[in-house]
Write a sequence for this structure.
C-alpha cells in the first residue's frame, strides 16, 4: 500500500482537536475489565493514517485531583508558574490540568519535603525514608503515592507552586494502536481502550488517558488533542502473502484494522488470528465481526484461548503449540508473523513458543531456530507492537 500524503499542519507539537463520535462498552456483564470502543473523527484535519499506525492522544488530569493539589498548596490556581522550555509563566491550574503528570513523584521531592518539614515527626519520617539503607523501601513507597499523597502526609513542609511543579514530569500523550483501516474509515480512527481504575494508599487511582476518553470527554465535542504516529507495524504489502496474528486482550486492536484493510483491498493471502482473554462470555470483544470474517473466509483460522473458562489456564501461546505443525507450514511458506499486546509476559512467551515451533516442526536445533527467527526479523516478516 502506498503511503498516503499527509498534510503536516497537525502534528505532535500542534495536535488536532478531534471529536469522539462513539463510546461504547465492549466487555460484557461479569467481566473483570472495562474495555471500550471509541470512534474519533479526524474529518477536516488533513490527517491520514495507515492500518497499524497509532493515534496519539493528549489527556487532561481529573479536575478533582487538580483541586486537591491546589488546596494542599493553599493556592487558587491563578498563580503563574514556569515550565521547562517555556518563556512565559502559565496559570498553575492549567499547568496541573493539562501539562504536568500528577503521579510518580521522584526521590528529590522527598528530599525537598525533608528540608522544609517543621513538624519533628514528619521530618524524622522523611529522613528515615532517605536513609541509605531505605533505597528499596523508598522506591516502593513512592510507587504507591502521587504528589497529593506527599503533600497530605507532610503538611508542615510548605512548598510554593513553582517549587511543586519543578518536581513534576511533563504529561505525555498516550499512543493507541489504531483498530480500523483508512480504506474503510478514511475520516475516522477506531480505538480499543482498556480503562484503568485501581486503589493504592487508600485513594482511588486511574489511568490518566484511558479514563480521560470515557469520563472527561463528551461525545460530539471537538476537544481531544490528537496526532498520527507512524509505525512499521503494517499488514503485508503483497496481497498474496499469508499473515499470522497473535493479539490477546487489547492486542487485537491493530488486527481488526489489518483485516478490514485486506478485505477492502481484495487481498487473497490467508489470515490466521490467535486471540485470547479471560472469559468467552464477557471478554470476546468484536466477536460478531470476527465470526463474520471467519464465515466469509477472510479469516482462514481463528484460534481462541479463554484462560478462565476451564480449571487449567490456557493462553494464546498454548494454542500456538497445539497447532505447531500447521503454524510452521505457514511460516515456512513465507507468512508474516505479528504480535501485539503485553510486553512483559505474553510477548516473551509467544516468542519462546515461536522458537519451539520452528525448532520442533522445522527439524532445527535451538541455535538454528534462533537464526531463522533473526532472518524473519530482518525480512520484516516478524513484527511486534508491544507495550
Amino acid at each position: 500500500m502506498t503511503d498516503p500524503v499527509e498534510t503536516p499542519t497537525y502534528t505532535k507539537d500542534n495536535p488536532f482537536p478531534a471529536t469522539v463520535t462513539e463510546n461504547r462498552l465492549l466487555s460484557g456483564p461479569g467481566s473483570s475489565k472495562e474495555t471500550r470502543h471509541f470512534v474519533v473523527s479526524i474529518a477536516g484535519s488533513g490527517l491520514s493514517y495507515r492500518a497499524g499506525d497509532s493515534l496519539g492522544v493528549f489527556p487532561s488530569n481529573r479536575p478533582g485531583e487538580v483541586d486537591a493539589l491546589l488546596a494542599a498548596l493553599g493556592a487558587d490556581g491563578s498563580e503563574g508558574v514556569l515550565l521547562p522550555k517555556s518563556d512565559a509563566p502559565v496559570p498553575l491550574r492549567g499547568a496541573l490540568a493539562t501539562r504536568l503528570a500528577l503521579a510518580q513523584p521522584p526521590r528529590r521531592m522527598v528530599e525537598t519535603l525533608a528540608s522544609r518539614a517543621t513538624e519533628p515527626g514528619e521530618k524524622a519520617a522523611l529522613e528515615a525514608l532517605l536513609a541509605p539503607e531505605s533505597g528499596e523501601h523508598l522506591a516502593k513507597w513512592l510507587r504507591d503515592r502521587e504528589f497529593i499523597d506527599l503533600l497530605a502526609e507532610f503538611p508542615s513542609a510548605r512548598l510554593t507552586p513553582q517549587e511543586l511543579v519543578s518536581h513534576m514530569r511533563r504529561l505525555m500523550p498516550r499512543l493507541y494502536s489504531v483498530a480500523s483501516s483508512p480504506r474503510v474509515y478514511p475520516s475516522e480512527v477506531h480505538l480499543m481502550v482498556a480503562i484503568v481504575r485501581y486503589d493504592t494508599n487508600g485513594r482511588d487511582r486511574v489511568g490518566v488517558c484511558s479514563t480521560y476518553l470515557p469520563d472527561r470527554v463528551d461525545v460530539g465535542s471537538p476537544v481531544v488533542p490528537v496526532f498520527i504516529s507512524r509505525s512499521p507495524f503494517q499488514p503485508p504489502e503483497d496481497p498474496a502473502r499469508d499473515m499470522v496474528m497473535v493479539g490477546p486482550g487489547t492486542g487485537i486492536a491493530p488486527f481488526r484494522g489489518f483485516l478490514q484493510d485486506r478485505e477492502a483491498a481484495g487481498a487473497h493471502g490467508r489470515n490466521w488470528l490467535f486471540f485470547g482473554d479471560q472469559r468467552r462470555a464477557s471478554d470476546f470483544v468484536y466477536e460478531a465481526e470476527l465470526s463474520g470474517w471467519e464465515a466469509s473466509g477472510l479469516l482462514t483460522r481463528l484460534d481462541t484461548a479463554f484462560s478462565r473458562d476451564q480449571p487449567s489456564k490456557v493462553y494464546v501461546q498454548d494454542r500456538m503449540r497445539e497447532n505447531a505443525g500447521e503454524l510452521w507450514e505457514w511460516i515456512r511458506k513465507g507468512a508474516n508473523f505479528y504480535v501485539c499486546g503485553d510486553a512483559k509476559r505474553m510477548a516473551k512467551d509467544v516468542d519462546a513458543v515461536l522458537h519451539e515451533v520452528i525448532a520442533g516442526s522445522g527439524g532445527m536445533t535451538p541455535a538454528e531456530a534462533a537464526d531463522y527467527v533473526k532472518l524473519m526479523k530482518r525480512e520484516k516478516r516478524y513484527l511486534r507492537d508491544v507495550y
DSSP finds 15 helices and 15 strands in the chain.
